[in-house]
Specification:
Elements (H helix, E strand, L loop, with lengths): L2 H12 L3 H23 L2 H10 L1 H4 L5 H10 L1 H16 L17 H9 L4 H8 L9 H17 L5
The chain binds zinc ion.
The site of zinc ion (ZN) has 4 residues, from helix 8.
Length: 158
C-alpha cells in the first residue's frame, strides 16, 4: 500500500462521522497534492523547463564529443563526470565559481551546461541546491543522474 493511501485510511479511522469523512477526504487530497509537489515533481518537469530555455536547449554534442562518447561509453563518461563535479563544484565555495566548467572538450561539460549543473549558481537556480554548502554524496548522485538522462537522450548513433 502506498504511503498516500495509508494516510487516507488513517484519516478515515480518526474521524468516524460523515462530515468527518468529507473533511478527511479533502485533507487526504491535500496531503496527496503536497506530497506530489514536494517529492514527485521529478526530472520530467526539469527537462521540460530546460527545453523551454533558449540558452540551455542550444547545447548539443559536437561530432568530436559524440565520437568520444561512443568510444568511451556512458559509464566511463559519468565516472569522469563524478570527478569533475567533486573537484570543481563539490566544495562550499569552489574556485572560479561560474567559470569552472569549460564549454567544450568533454561530453560531460556540454551536458552540464545543457542541464544547469555547470556552477553553484546554476545548481541553485535550476535544482534548488543551496550554494555555500559542500555538496553531499546524495546531491552528487542526483546531478549525475540528471546528466545521465541528458546524455542518454542525445542521438549519437549508439
Ligand atoms: Zn552555471
Amino acid at each position: 500500500m502506498s504511503r498516500s493511501s495509508l494516510i487516507l485510511k488513517l484519516m478515515y479511522k480518526l474521524r468516524g462521522n460523515e462530515w468527518g469523512q468529507c473533511i478527511s477526504i479533502a485533507g487526504g487530497c491535500l496531503v496527496l497534492f503536497v506530497l506530489y509537489n514536494v517529492f514527485m515533481r521529478d526530472v520530467d518537469e526539469l527537462f521540460l523547463a530546460l527545453g523551454r530555455s533558449k540558452f540551455r536547449s542550444r547545447f548539443r554534442l559536437k561530432e568530436r564529443d559524440a565520437e568520444y562518447y561512443k568510444e568511451k561509453g556512458l559509464e566511463v563518461i559519468l565516472e569522469h563526470g563524478r570527478e569533475f563535479i567533486t573537484q570543481r563544484l563539490g566544495q562550499a565555495k569552489p574556485i572560479n565559481d561560474g567559470k569552472q566548467t569549460p564549454i567544450r572538450n568533454h561530453p560531460f561539460f556540454v551536458a552540464q551546461h545543457a542541464t544547469g549543473t555547470c556552477c553553484r549558481r546554476c545548481l541553485e537556480k535550476w535544482h534548488g541546491i543551496k550554494k555555500g554548502v559542500e555538496l553531499s554524496e546524495g546531491q552528487i548522485d542526483y546531478i549525475i543522474s540528471v546528466i545521465k538522462r541528458w546524455l542518454t537522450e542525445q542521438d549519437v548513433g549508439l
